Amino acid sequence: MQPGSVSFKFYQPTQIVFGEGVFNELGDYVAGFGRRCLLVTGRHFALKYGYVDKVKDMLGRHGIDAAHFGLVEPNPSYETVKKGVKVACNFDIDFVVAFGGGSVIDAGKAIALLATLGGDVEDYLYPKTVDGYEIMPVVAVPTTCGTGSEVTKYSLLTDVKAGKKRVIAGSSIIPRLSVLDPDLLETLPSEMVAYTGFDALSHALESYFSCSSTLISDMFAVESIKTALRSLENAYRGDRRAKARMLYASMLAGMAINITGTILVHALGYPLTTKYGVHHGLANAVFLAEVLKYILPTVKGRAEELCSELGFSNWRELVERIVILQDKVGVPSRLSSLGIKAFPEEIAREALSYSRNIENSPVKPGLEELVEICRRVL
After folding, report:
1. Tens of pLDDT along 73-110?
2. What is 190-377's CATH topology?
3. pLDDT by residue (tens digit) across 263-272?
4. d(CA 264, CA 374)
5. Structure pTM?
6. Could you tell me which of 40, 39, 16, 19 has the C-alpha nearest to residue 178?
7. What CATH number should be reported for the domain whose range is 22-180?
8. How do 154-159 and 164-169 pair as beta strands?
9. Beta strand 15-18 pairing with 65-72
């Protein structure tokens, strides 16, 4: 398929509720999903700010009992998902509420899948797709403005033994309901606004230049890019309205990659996360400008179309705007400033193993090209 194809398929079954204060109506929205649910959270945020008790109370007022599974780590592992499935099955749940960032929502999707269908994580990994299965509803409540997992068909997990990112993909795990409340970003640290915001920007740009992009994915991607470029700096500085717009941009980018998937930026970023513990959004951010410099001269027509939409005269201006934005929000352009000493060849070889992302890129790099990109970043 040519980028920007006029042929497309689009499926988005998620009911989206977006606005300040909508989290407080969560019980109303989930009342029809059953009487027992699993509340999936990370290890700190939800407990620290009292959200676990608040969710349980809201659900309880609608006659819904909630068991809490609060062990999800950044980049959730197979083992964590399996622990969550055990709790879900022991409590005989009807649906899952995933309250947290992308890792929590990804884990919640996988838990719902396995709790419904049985089996192990390994049984459902890509290239197998989970389409056409009836699984219990997943309710996503994002507390960051980056992954868009609240609307996507992806559950990104970590195979700790192999040191690899793996994905469960398919329409069956798209959340049934997403409640997006900008008020939940109030306590999000500024650096996390930057990292997750750049994750959203990377999703949108990668979607636009994906080999699988279509007219409808472009619509979501362009609006997301515009919004992120205008809003991320102010969101980083604490502006409430800008944070709300970044939550919107993240959701749009999620809809875009639901159609297209991601490309080279993610392939390069994954090894930094799995091998060196770099935050996923930061890993994407440090590679974003260099990957665009590599790709855009080869797809000049496509780049010109995007620049026209965004108000830039050429692709170099777009890349320069991204580099300036990185500096404004404290995202380093070089990993050496983080004290990370990685070998370009190691990262490049690992990136090549993510064939799904490489093949989806408009330019298919070889090892030498990836090593050069890594040298510039590392």
Report:
1. 999 999 999 999 999 999 999 999 999 999 999 999 99
2. Dehydroquinate synthase-like, alpha domain (1.20.1090)
3. 999 999 999 9
4. 12
5. 0.96
6. 16
7. 3.40.50.1970
8. antiparallel
9. unpaired
